[in-house]
Design a protein that fits this description.
The protein is mostly helical and 174 residues long. Helices cover 54% and strands 5% of the residues. The protein contains seven helices and two strands. It has a two-stranded antiparallel ribbon. Strand 1 and strand 2 (13-16) form a beta hairpin. Helix 1 packs antiparallel against helix 2 (61-77), helix 2 (61-77) runs antiparallel to helix 4 and helix 3 (80-89) packs antiparallel against helix 4 (94-123). The longest helix has 30 residues, at 94-123. The protein is flat. The mean pLDDT is 81.
Length: 174
């Protein structure tokens, strides 16, 4: 190989070599065993660990159950997102579609925060994972189903929400 140096204010230097070795210490200490944290376990390992875990074990039974249910809810949430987006995109005029995007983002943020809250409560064993994680999922399914059915029937999902209000007309009594 060739190494070239061009320092400021001086001439260029070139170094030719046939072999270059760099003494790097590759001795490292071993890594700790995987699985001390429930986030390191695979879905199958979580399923198996839920039988053996206790309240005193590390990770605890509540942490393992919360992690397992959290992953299952997130996996099942992904196919719902396009089904939620479709009726929001069919909201009608451009002005209404912008509102649909805003409502969609609001739904996703509230859903994500509800899942985080449920997960935190379930990991501390203050709330059952079935309630803290599956209840927001079921609400998302219900909202998505309602909006999708309205869109399939031809109704605009947010017609009343984004309609311009017209002032009431006063009729003259004769």
């Amino acid at each position: 190989g060739v190494r070239a140096e061009i320092p400021e204010g001086a001439g260029a230097d070139a170094l030719s070599f046939r072999n270059f070795s760099w003494p790097v210490d590759t001795a490292t200490e071993g890594f700790r065993a995987r699985g001390r944290d429930q986030k390191e376990l695979t879905l199958t390992e979580l399923w198996q660990a839920r039988r053996d875990a206790t309240a005193e074990s590390k990770p605890s039974a509540a942490e393992i159950a919360a992690e397992l249910h959290s992953r299952l809810v997130l996996i099942l949430s992904v196919p719902l997102l396009p089904l939620l987006a479709a009726p929001l995109a069919l909201a009608g005029r451009v002005r209404s579609r912008r509102g649909g995007v805003a409502i969609g983002l609001l739904i996703l943020i509230v859903y994500y925060e509800a899942l985080n809250f449920g997960d935190a409560m379930a990991k501390r064993d203050l709330l059952a994972p079935q309630l803290g994680l599956w209840l927001p999922f079921m609400l998302l399914v219900a909202v998505t189903g309602h909006l999708l059915l309205r869109a399939l029937r031809g109704a605009q999902p947010f017609r009343t929400m984004f309609r311009r209000s017209t002032p009431p007309t006063v009729s003259a009594a004769t």
